[in-house]
Design brief:
By secondary structure, the protein is of the alpha+beta class. It has three helices and four strands.
Length: about 100
Amino acid sequence: MDTEKIDRTGVDAPRPDPSQGAARPTRRTGRHEDRVEWSAPIDRAEISDEARLLAELRQAVEQAPDVREDVVREVRDALDEGSYRVDPHQIARRILGKTED
């Protein structure tokens, strides 16, 4: 009998790879013997309240319409009535990056 392969935990009990993180033994009780099986380390991640809030805000932005229907309706109504007026100086200032009104 080869006694080098027998230890207190059973025959040829698997050992964890230290490079994979800390593994934890789990004990199983058999009818006639105790043996240890090594389980893989448990990965955990926690999400902060700030990250949750950012995710909710991002979802709200993604669900918001690309076109503001209320503004479009106002401009369309003004065009139909002939009351839509454009200030060419204001347009020129905004094109040049000057937002003073």
